Amino acid sequence: MRRALAIARRGPADNANPQVGCVILDPSGCIIAEGWHRGSGTPHAEVDALSRVPAEWRERSRELTAVVTLEPCNHTGRTGPCAVALTEFGAGGIGAVVYALGDPGQASSGGAETLRNHGVSVTGGVLAGEAAALLGPWLARAFPSQAGSARPSESAQPTDSPRPHVTVKWAQTIDGRAAAADGSSQWITGADARADVHRRRAEADAILVGTGTLLADDPSLTARAESGGLLVPAAEQPIPVVIGHREIPADARLRQHPALAANGLGAPMQFSGEDLAGALTELHERGIQRLFVEGGPTVASALFAAGLVDEVLIYIAPSLLGGPRLALGDIGVASMAEIKQLRIVHTAQLGADLLIKAAVAGPNSSPASRSQEGS
């Protein structure tokens, strides 16, 4: 679904039709085709993806799963209904469909029911909050009286949220240290974990770092992909953002970030950090819908304390450092009654390292209800 959300952003953001992405999976979960909507009058994401399915899979279409960011439409407009296209594809139609948000349109909704009536397994609500963040501007334009009512709802960001979806990432030793006592931190984790970080950077609209990390490490913050055994700049690059009062050095590698020229920016965007919520609101107004934070313990802790984090990616190395350099500092928790709950949604072994991905539980949910989410 995250890949579908990433390619959905390739479509025009100010179009009358929504930005939608679709990937087709084989039975092992590998992507064999993908597509996105390029604007009014062009094939919808599902049809675009189906057109790219290799010929050998068309006779085995019932084994395939379509993952799409918006419930497949159920009406004929300038193009035909995607729900029907999915049921008529190949030899007997697609076997399963997974979508994020339900279609709020009176005429276009009902695709899930049509699919089920044709024997397709349908699952909705996967990463609905992230899809809502992506489609918020379109929903506000197309359905002003229904703002925030996209189906199905989740306890994630509403469609009228004034800030991006915030992912905070850090690497740590198994004893919770992000750096050695002398401040050095490269590299705590191995090559596999770092490659995973690059992939996730490429899925974000912007990448944020604090001035402390900027001055200590002089990071490039680019997303890189493997090509011919070498790491080269990825096609999709997040816009660099800096938090903190101190100036960005004239020779900082971040000033050469490829996303600056691509987006008509002369320098990385910078905010003082005194009003984190206001900074995120401004980023949202500039079209940033997914923010990837690699700002170091100070920035990460401040975002947690302000209640501005949606999910965390923690890369854990099987090593020990000890000392004072913790991966997370004061997050505003003074007692167990104030503990911030997380919900683990994914784990992965990356070489010798372990990745834990967790969603930040809503402030009004109980520990009991949180333990049942995603079960």
From TrEMBL:
Pathway the protein takes part in: Cofactor biosynthesis; riboflavin biosynthesis; 5-amino-6-(D-ribitylamino)uracil from GTP: step 3/4; Cofactor biosynthesis; riboflavin biosynthesis; 5-amino-6-(D-ribitylamino)uracil from GTP: step 2/4
Record InterPro entries: APOBEC/CMP_deaminase_Zn-bd, CMP_dCMP_dom, Cytidine_deaminase-like, DHFR-like_dom_sf, Eubact_RibD, RibDG_C, Riboflavin_Biosynth_HTPR
Pfam family name, one: RibD_C
Cofactor annotation: Zn(2+)
Binding-site residues, Zn(2+): H44, C73, C82
Co-factor binding details: Binds 1 zinc ion.
PROSITE patterns per the UniProt record, alphabetical: CYT_DCMP_DEAMINASES_1, CYT_DCMP_DEAMINASES_2
Keywords: Hydrolase, Metal-binding, Multifunctional enzyme, NADP, Oxidoreductase, Riboflavin biosynthesis, Zinc
Gene3D superfamilies assigned: Cytidine Deaminase, domain 2, Dihydrofolate Reductase, subunit A
An individual GO BP term: riboflavin biosynthetic process
Region annotation Disordered: where it falls in the sequence: 146-165
GO MF: 5-amino-6-(5-phosphoribosylamino)uracil reductase activity; diaminohydroxyphosphoribosylaminopyrimidine deaminase activity; zinc ion binding
Compositionally biased spans, kind Polar residues: 146-160
Catalytic function, reaction form: 5-amino-6-(5-phospho-D-ribitylamino)uracil + NADP(+) = 5-amino-6-(5-phospho-D-ribosylamino)uracil + NADPH + H(+); 2,5-diamino-6-hydroxy-4-(5-phosphoribosylamino)-pyrimidine + H2O + H(+) = 5-amino-6-(5-phospho-D-ribosylamino)uracil + NH4(+)
Membrane-traversing stretches: none
Family according to the record: In the N-terminal section; belongs to the cytidine and deoxycytidylate deaminase family. In the C-terminal section; belongs to the HTP reductase family.
Function, as annotated: Converts 2,5-diamino-6-(ribosylamino)-4(3h)-pyrimidinone 5'-phosphate into 5-amino-6-(ribosylamino)-2,4(1h,3h)-pyrimidinedione 5'-phosphate.
The protein's name: Riboflavin biosynthesis protein RibD
